[in-house]
Amino acid sequence: MSLTKGDRQMNIEVPAVFPVSYQALEQEAKKLMSKGAYGYVRSAASNEETLRKNTTAFEKWSILPRMLRNVADIDMSVTLGEHTYPYPIFIAPVGMQKLTHEEGELATARAAKTIGVPFIQSTVSSYSIEEVKAATVDSPKWFQLYWSRNEQVSFSMVERAERAGYEAIVVTVDTIMTGWRETDIATQFSPLKEGYGKANYESDPAFMHALGEKTDHESMIQSVLDNIHYPEMNWSHIAALAKRTSLPIYIKGILHPEDVQCAIEAGASGLIVSNHGGRQLDGTVAALDALPAVVKAANQKVPVVFDSGIRRGTDIVKALALGAAAVCIGRPFVYGLGIDGQVGVEKVLENLIEETRITMSLAGIARVKDLNQLKLIRE
């Protein structure tokens, strides 16, 4: 039996053949993924303190609901820039999804199109910009950029995204080097070195021109690694990109309110509050704890999207109530992908949307744009 939106609770006797909770998703995915792949997806940097704080931060905020507010019709739509989307949910730019399922980003992008949420494609995806475009014509897509040491590669990838009809560029700024990831060290597993994230590079003319005749696997992977990690990156690179593209630029990895003005002055059209899901700097502030100050510093000049720690619909509502314009979903959809490909991602998104709808209804808020009126109590 297939359940439509709104009737999950009314058909509670129907067996949940697909995992519903995040914990169940994780455990089912663990059974199906290789040890290295599961460890890579599940783990985080160092002692995983930030990974834990990202989720427990939501428990510190309690919803104070209102009653009898006429919530018969729930409007979950959000507008960012010139585009309106039916739900406040984005697929986060998770790279190398072929680790989890053979169809990787193609399956995820198709699921996003089916449900109606934007798909953010990673620079280090397992399929190229052009392959994802071909698989999901006429659906909203953004492109996430890891700034390359060779800036011509960055400009080239952005131009490809423009030609493919992508709606925005997301520049990740918290990955100037890889975080200290003990699980990957223990399993001796590096998906980048295995070649899972090279599709956009081997199909890029600027990258291949710079590579020259050294097109063997080892040379290509080393060049990818050399390009991804660029400690010299600064705000001038964002300004240079802003001059080269007409697409809105979102800066992903903002936690400090003083970086907000730097981003805006450099030409950013939006911000994404994120600590990379705890995978980069351990011991840093939980993303949710950083959100209110970043929203205040943005002062409605640019939209602020939230990433890192979303596990369920109540989390989505709390992040939106604290000022986020939308949220990004990462690990939950990756586990769904590992369990059942495109269908698995669709199930995860459907459950998140339905729990968000129910949470809004029971809290007395009928429209996402009114969630700033929802009172949260810090406990």
Q: Could you please describe the fold and organization of this structure?
A:
- With 379 residues, this protein is of the alpha/beta class.
- It has one domain (21-378): Alpha-Beta Barrel (TIM Barrel), CATH 3.20.20.70.
- The protein has helices at 22-32, 35-42, 49-56, 104-115, 129-135, 151-163, 182-187, 191-194, 199-202, 205-211, 217-228, 235-244, 258-266, 287-298, 313-321, 331-363, and strands spanning 61-64, 78-80, 83-85, 89-91, 119-121, 141-146, 169-172, 249-254, 270-273, 304-306, 326-329, 375-378.
- Strands 4-11-10-9-8-7-6-5 form an eight-stranded parallel sheet. A two-stranded antiparallel sheet has the order 1-12.
- Helix 12 runs parallel beside helix 13 (258-266).
- It starts with 21 loop residues before the first helix and ends with a strand.
- InterPro entries: Aldolase_TIM, Alpha-hydoxy_acid_DH_FMN, FMN-dep_DH, FMN_HAD, FMN_hydac_DH_AS.
- FMN binds at residues 93-95, 122, 144, 172, 252, 274, 307-311, 330-331.
- It is an enzyme of class 1 (oxidoreductase).
- The active site is at 276 (proton acceptor).
